[in-house]
Design brief:
The complex is a heterodimer. Chain A is built from 8 helices and 2 strands. By secondary structure, chain A is mostly helical. Chain A has one domain. The chains are: A mainly alpha, B alpha/beta.
Chain lengths: 233, 225
């Protein structure tokens, strides 16, 4: 299973590196979303912070949610891309014929998406700090939020992405399936990031725990059900 | 007596609601090269996909290498042992010839040497190996697909119009590859309209009409009737 996962992940990353879709389309899209959000929220509007009474700009306060929304929209592009290459020219049949362990295919495809999202988050996150200027209260917690959210989004996204893999309606069906499922992840990631940026940290760790549990749930579901999904797609 | 490789009895296989195979009886023994002949839409490609464990058997019974085609576990076992060359090339456009052949070879536990030898044999080694598949001609893509098949060394070769899109040299090479594989113990089923070419290769011809394997004739008679 691990060897098959490694093969699939290496193949997907090689395709991304070769086609430059991540660097030429997905990352610019994420940055653009971030910039447009910035235009939509007045930078001089201030809100009262819950702790200490200090005020923050609305843009600062909203930055965690805007960042994760930008990542979520970019994830949809990455997912469509990941399964479009399999749907083309009989590749899904070839994957079935090659005798791949379905769990290995799931781990490999989600592993490649994790790598792509981490690169995206590094760029978009840097952009968010530069554009919105939020403080950083707990860097370790922020890293934990990024890792668990990325895993949760990738595992759930890969599972639902496979559902639409062989369908003509894939481009519209996958967002319809994925967005409602990832709504709790978006909420938890936003709250956890707020804690990591503005404090206090204690509440944030509970959200990190939720995100970790979500990721584990979809990891298990993917390993168990990906074979059936590949057969039906 | 040769061992049975494929045994289908009354097999019905549906594409949507359409019965692409409607009660097909079909048997192939080890070492045979069977030519599937028939008009477009007769069910030849579906018959090959059923034998590959890719298309479902909705009714009837089917076995390949003794594995039951009506069960998912049986289909998975069959898939590891067969190689299918279909109309689709099953290659990743963004990867090079070398990346594609090595990826599919590694998936089948074939070593790098086998992949390299297959590329050289099919004429897609040398400078072509580092070219992206998207930049290849149709014939070169076909040769790359064949290189994948050769590197995998399947026990059952399932070839759907294998000569399509190839030049004369490529067509001769396919015949040679099938001949060689069968000589090494493999079995082949070839669906083709190029009767003059495949007839000399086939040990037996099966006529597929209306989703049924209707007629069985001996070698050298494919063009008759």
């Amino acid at each position: 299973m691990i060897e098959h996962a490694r093969l699939i992940a290496a193949k997907d990353l090689k395709i991304e590196w070769s086609s430059r879709v991540l660097t030429a389309q997905v990352i610019p899209f994420g940055v653009l979303v971030l910039v447009l959000f910035g235009f939509g929220i007045p930078p001089d509007r201030r809100v009262l912070a819950s702790e200490g009474g200090a005020s923050r700009s609305l843009l600062e306060q909203a930055s965690p949610g805007l960042f994760w929304l930008a990542v979520l929209f970019s994830l949809l592009l990455a997912l469509n891309r990941s399964f479009a290459v399999e749907a083309a020219d009989g590749n899904l049949d070839a994957l079935r014929l090659a005798g791949f362990d379905p769990a290995g295919v799931f781990l490999g495809k989600s592993g490649a998406i994790v790598c792509e999202l981490l690169v995206l988050e590094l760029v978009v996150g840097t952009g968010a700090f530069l554009l919105y200027g939020p403080p950083l209260h707990d860097a370790l917690q922020l890293c934990a939020v990024v890792v668990t959210t990325t895993l949760a989004m990738s595992f759930a996204g890969t599972l639902y992405g496979a559902l639409g893999a062989g369908l003509r309606l894939r481009d519209t069906l996958v967002p319809l399936l994925v967005l409602p499922v990832l709504a709790p992840v978006l909420l938890a990631a936003t709250r956890a990031t707020e804690s990591a940026l503005f404090g206090p940290s204690s509440e944030g760790w509970a959200w990190v725990g939720f995100l970790g549990a979500f990721a584990l749930l979809y990891l298990g579901a993917g390993i168990l059900s990906f074979g059936s999904l590949l057969e039906e797609s | 007596m040769s061992k049975p490789v494929v045994r289908l009895r009354g097999v019905v296989s549906l594409i949507g609601r359409f019965p692409a195979l409607a009660g097909a009886d079909f048997a192939v023994s080890e070492g045979e090269v069977v030519l599937l002949q028939g008009p477009n839409g007769a069910g030849k490609s579906t018959l090959l996909r059923v034998c590959a464990g890719l298309a479902s058997v909705h009714n009837g019974t089917g076995e390949v290498f003794g594995f039951d085609l009506t069960t998912r576990s049986g289909q998975r076992e069959v898939r590891r042992r067969v190689g299918l060359l279909s109309h689709a090339t099953a290659l990743y456009d963004e990867l090079t010839v070398e990346d594609n052949v090595r990826f599919w070879a590694a998936a089948a536990n074939a070593d790098v040497g086998a992949a390299d030898a297959a590329m050289d044999r099919l004429g897609v080694g040398g400078r072509l190996r580092s070219i992206r598949v998207a930049g290849l001609s149709a014939g070169q893509r076909r040769r790359t697909s064949l290189a994948v098949l050769v590197a995998r060394r399947p026990m059952l070769w399932l070839l759907d119009e294998p000569h399509a899109g190839l030049d004369a040299e490529g067509r001769d090479l396919i015949d040679e590859l099938v001949h060689q594989a069968v000589g090494q113990g493999a079995t082949a089923i070839v669906a083709s309209h190029e009767l003059d070419r495949v007839d000399s290769l086939a040990t037996r011809t099966v006529h597929v009409v209306g989703g049924q394997a209707m007629e069985v004739r001996g070698p050298g008679q494919a063009g008759a009737g």
